[in-house]
Every structure is written in C-alpha cells, then in structure tokens.
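Model the whole thing, not chain by chain.
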Amino acid sequence: MNSFLMQEVPLSWYLLLSAALFSLGVVGFLIKRNLITVFMSIELMLNGVNLSFVTFAHQWHAVKGQIFVFFVMLVAAAEAAVGLAIIIAIFRARATLAVDRIDLMKL
Amino acid sequence: MHLILFIVFAGFCLAGAINLLLQSHPINSALSLIVVMTSLAVLYLMLGAEFLAAAQVIVYAGAIMVLFTFVIMLLNAGREDRTLGSRAAGRVGFPAVVAVLAVIATMILHAHGLGVARLSDGITTTEELSAVLFTKLLLPFEVTSVLILIAILGAVALASRGNGDQERTGGR
C-alpha cells in the first residue's frame, strides 16, 4: 500500500499532455468547419493551458497558479456565454453554421 | 497507483481530444469534450488542486458544456460538410503547430529541476486558496464579478435583439 502511494509521475509528463492538448485544440481550430466546434476547440486550448498552470503550481508549491486557473475558468464562462449568443445571432441572420459561408469580413 | 491513474486519465484526455477532431457531428464533439474536461478534473486532483477539480466539473463539464449542447440542439446543427479549408491553414498552420509542439516538447524534456508528483504530496486546501483570493486578490475577484455581469447583459442583448426584429417584420 505504501509503495502504491509513493509511486511517482514526472511533472514533465503533465506538461507534455498539456502541450498535446493545446496543439490538438489548434489543429481543431484549423480543420473544423462548424462554428460551434471551432469554439469548442478554443475551450480545449484553454483547458490545456490550465493543466500547465496547475502543474507549475504543484512544482513551486504556489497557490497563485491555481488562483490564475480559477480566473481563467471565470473568463471562459463569460466568453462561452457571449460567444454562444453571437453564434445564435449569426445563425438567425444567415441560417448557417459553416465557417466557409460566414465570410462578410473576408477580403 | 498514481502512474496507473495518470496513464488512464491522460489516455482518456488524448482520446477525447482526438475524437473531437474526428467526429463530424457537433454533438459528438461536445460529448468528447466533456470526457476531456472530466478526466482533466481527475488530473487536477492528482496534482493536489481539490478546489479546481470540483470547479472543473461544475463550471466546465457542467455549466459551459451544458450551454454548448443546449445551443447545438437549439440550432439543430447537422453534420458539417467537409471542405478543404483555407489554403493558409494547410501550408502555414499545420507545420507551425508541429514546430511549436516540437519546440515545447524538447524544452520540457530538457528542463532541469522539474519535480515529480506523488499521491502522498498532500493537497492545497480550499482554505489556503481562499485566504489568498479574498485578501491579496480581492480587487481582481470583484472585477471578474463585474465582468460576468456584463457578459450576462451582453448575452441577453445579443440573443434577444434578433428576435425583436423578427417580430417586428412578422407583424407588418
């Protein structure tokens, strides 16, 4: 039982997982063609960065890293509320969610 | 135990994230994102962040993802049509993503002084967290509450304005 508790995982593995999640989020942002899925990829990137913050808070025994994650969560909640409202407004105006067809600001 | 838990939930995380990319229906992507966020909550708990683990489940996996699934079902979002995407994404985006990931991975693997995580490390209690949050960081905390209020007002204004126009044109 004690050897179970003393088993250890290098913190670099957590950081690698965080980098992988962030990269998958960027790839999703680039390849997904649905507005809502693109928005979900952004949430995935935020989560990847949050894991980095928690890992470094564990490394330096600092509370402020965790508090930063708390603020990121609050801002992500506000962002999701406003972003989804914008998506609903766009859907009402143009009746589509495909990012290729929402191109009024394209040069 | 820690190693097994890490491998299992890191695997869930990566599998969910990859599944998010592969699914063509938004609701499947949203469900796999919930898997990612819930397994991240377990990883937070293993790193000793008990409050954040709870907040991750409540705020992210609960509130935000319910909002997402609600909007997907409200708008009746169907399968996305696969297009080639922009040319800039293929030529610049993917090499840039691979390069950034490679640079970060080599930096992490060559970093000195990174410690290890054990289950016996102990946790950061909510008491310690709130002691800092409500003394040193009280002003940012209050500012975020104003931000949330503005976000609620903005969401209501954005989502209801289109409806009003529709009613007006429908009335005439």
